[in-house]
Each structure stands twice: as C-alpha cells, then as structure tokens.
C-alpha cells in the first residue's frame, strides 16, 4: 500500500479519505448544503416549503435548521428563515470545495475535450429545481464575464431567461468599469420585457458601472423594413457598435423551442425536424454538426462576427439542450461554456 505523505495530502486526497472513513459524510454534507442554499434563494422561507422541495420530513428539517441557527448560518423570524452574513460567506466559500467534492473539475475537462472548446464551467446540480439551476448558471457566467472585462471593452448580450439570470446575479461593481459599453447583440423577441436583450444590456451596464446602447427593433423584422430603418442615425449607431463587440455572452436555445417563439408554421417546424435542426443562433438553424439548415430574418450580431470573436461565453441549463450545445460548439473553438451538471453528463452521452 502506497503511503500518503503530508505534502501530497491536498484537498482531493482529503476528500477521498473522508469518503472512505466516513462513508455517510457525503450524504450529510450535501443535504445540509442543499438546505442552506435553498434558504438563500427562497428567503424568507418556512420549514414546510423546504420539506416539500427536498422531499425530507419536516421533523428532519427542524433538526437541521436548529443546527444551522446555532452555528449562526441562518436566522429564524416570524415570516420565515433567512441566511445571515456568515451563512452567505459560508456558501461562497463552499462553492470551490463542492466543485472538487463532486469531481466536477474532471467533468469540465472531459466535456471541454469532447467539444474541443476553450473552457467549460459546470455548476453543481443537487436539487431538481430549474429556477435555482438557472440562477447559479447566471451567477457563474456573470463572474466569468467580470473576470474578463477590460477598459473600453464593448460587450454584447442576447436576450432570454438565462441571460436575464446573468443580469440578476451579477453583483454591483460601483463604477469600476465606467468606460465599458454593453449593447444588445440581437433585436427584441417575444413579449416578456425582462427577458429582452435591451433590458438585460441596461441592467448589466448598470451593475458594471458602464454605459449601454439600445436597439429599438424586433429580432425578426422584415429585411426590406430593416433596410429602411437601418438608415436611422440612432439604429445605425447601435449596429456599428454591435459590429465592434469584443466579447459576446449568449444563451443557447433548442431549434424547436426557438422556432415556436418565432412563429414558424407547422409545416416549417416539421421541415426543421426532418432536416435535423437542433439549435438556433445568429439567424440560422443548425444540425448537430453545426451545419446550417435554414436562415431566418434576424437583426443583430452576424454569424461571421461570432466566428471571429476571441471571447464568447455561452450558457445553458437542462439536459434537453445537449444537442443544441454540441451544435453551437462547432462554430467557435474560443467558446467558454457555462452549464449545469445534468447537461454536462448528457453531452458526454452523445456519440
């Protein structure tokens, strides 16, 4: 048996030893982390709601929250439980440990090698809650974006639920990036204002302390109408900024879902399915190999521009988006991909 020297006893070794000596440690640790994380996201929250979400008896929940209260991690009020500053700091500090504890570093490397892209960031998935997964993907993508922002940078961002989560989870930088400009990378799509690229661009600019431009056009505008409107000085100015984007952050969507949002006819939907369309981006529908299946009228960053960018951040949640992610990864090897654990494992199943 190989001896383990002190200098070799890093965090991975410690985790491996703990799992051998205390086999039930993993279950207890994850359960308590899940409870604390849920309180953080749903606060103020009651024990009954936690019990329902986790599928754990209320009596067990009562014991766990009592322990957390004694440790100063949470406070219990009439309206429900909240995390304290100590609890928030604990969650932040545990994020790196959880990553190693679940072996996500190896998973990231494996997905990155499979897709042949620059970097993969996998968010741990411990609760079957799509809302929390979206928030944590948004936070991870926001943190990576902030780590790359430089003076006078022009940032492009698309719309959608995932990008709205990025804007929501991005912490304020108090004017740190005053000379940064954020622009919508695509026109508006759908009726939900909070998920429009314009709204998201303005929110991110506000949190970075920079400025923003707005694109007052729907994404699927008729090309003839666009030719006329594009001569408007304001719109022309924004389109010029879009062509100067240095970093793009975008959500990855499935072809069928996006086609429905764009109002394609049943015949067109069937045609896309028969031709193997799995993803939609930048005015095109792609098959799993990243080959163009169909072009649509769209306003914003071009496919040519996307392929030229040195820094692109794509984010997606849910195992059902695996084929869409694979398709988009074929377009630019500089892609930094932010996904959840279930999606990462589903990507590896694709031959």
UniProtKB/TrEMBL annotation:
Q: Which GO terms describe its molecular function?
A: carbohydrate binding; DNA binding
Where is each CggR N-terminal DNA binding domain found? 28-97
Family stated for the protein in its record: Belongs to the SorC transcriptional regulatory family.
Q: Which Gene3D superfamilies match?
A: 3.40.50.1360, Winged helix-like DNA-binding domain superfamily/Winged helix DNA-binding domain
| Alphabetized UniProt keyword annotations | DNA-binding, Transcription, Transcription regulation
Is the keyword DNA-binding in the record? yes
Start and end of every Sugar-binding domain?
Answer: 100-349
Q: Any idea what this protein is called?
A: Central glycolytic genes regulator
Q: Which domain of life is it from?
A: Bacteria
Task: Give yes or no: UniProt keyword Signal.
Answer: no
* InterPro entries, per the entry: CggR_N, NagB/RpiA_transferase-like, SorC_transcr_regulators, Sugar-bd_dom_put, WH-like_DNA-bd_sf, WH_DNA-bd_sf
The protein's organism comes out as: Thermotalea metallivorans
């Amino acid at each position: 048996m190989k001896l383990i020297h002190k200098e070799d006893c890093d965090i991975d070794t410690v985790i491996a030893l703990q799992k051998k000596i205390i086999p039930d440690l993993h279950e207890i640790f994850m359960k308590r982390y899940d409870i604390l994380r849920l309180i953080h996201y749903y606060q103020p929250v009651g024990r009954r709601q936690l019990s329902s979400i986790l599928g754990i008896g209320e009596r067990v929940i009562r014991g766990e929250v009592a322990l957390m209260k004694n440790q100063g991690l949470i406070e219990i009020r009439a309206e429900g439980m909240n995390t304290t500053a100590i609890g928030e700091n604990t969650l932040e500090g545990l994020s790196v440990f959880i990553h190693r504890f679940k072996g996500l570093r190896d998973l990231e490397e494996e997905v990155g090698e499979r897709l042949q892209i620059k970097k993969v960031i996998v968010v741990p998935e411990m609760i079957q809650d799509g809302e929390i997964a979206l928030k944590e993907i948004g936070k991870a993508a926001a943190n990576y974006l902030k780590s790359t922002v430089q003076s006078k940078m022009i940032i492009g961002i698309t719309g959608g639920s995932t990008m709205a989560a990025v804007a929501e989870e991005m912490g304020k930088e108090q004017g740190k990036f005053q000379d940064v400009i954020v622009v919508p990378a695509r026109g508006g799509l759908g009726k939900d204002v909070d998920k429009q690229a314009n709204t998201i661009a303005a929110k991110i600019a506000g949190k970075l302390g920079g400025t923003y431009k707005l694109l007052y056009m729907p994404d699927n505008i008729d090309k003839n109408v666009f030719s006329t409107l594009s001569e408007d000085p304001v719109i022309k100015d924004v389109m010029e900024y879009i062509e100067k984007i240095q970093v793009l952050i975008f959500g990855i969507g499935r072809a069928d879902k996006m086609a429905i949002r764009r109002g394609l006819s049943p015949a067109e939907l069937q045609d896309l399915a028969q031709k193997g369309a799995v993803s939609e981006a930048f005015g095109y529908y792609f098959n799993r190999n990243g080959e163009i299946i169909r072009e649509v009228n769209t306003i914003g960053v071009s496919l040519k521009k996307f392929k030229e960018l040195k820094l692109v951040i794509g984010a997606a949640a849910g195992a059902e988006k695996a084929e869409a992610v694979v398709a988009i990864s074929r377009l630019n090897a500089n892609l930094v991909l932010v996904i959840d654990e279930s999606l990462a494992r589903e990507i590896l199943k694709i031959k």
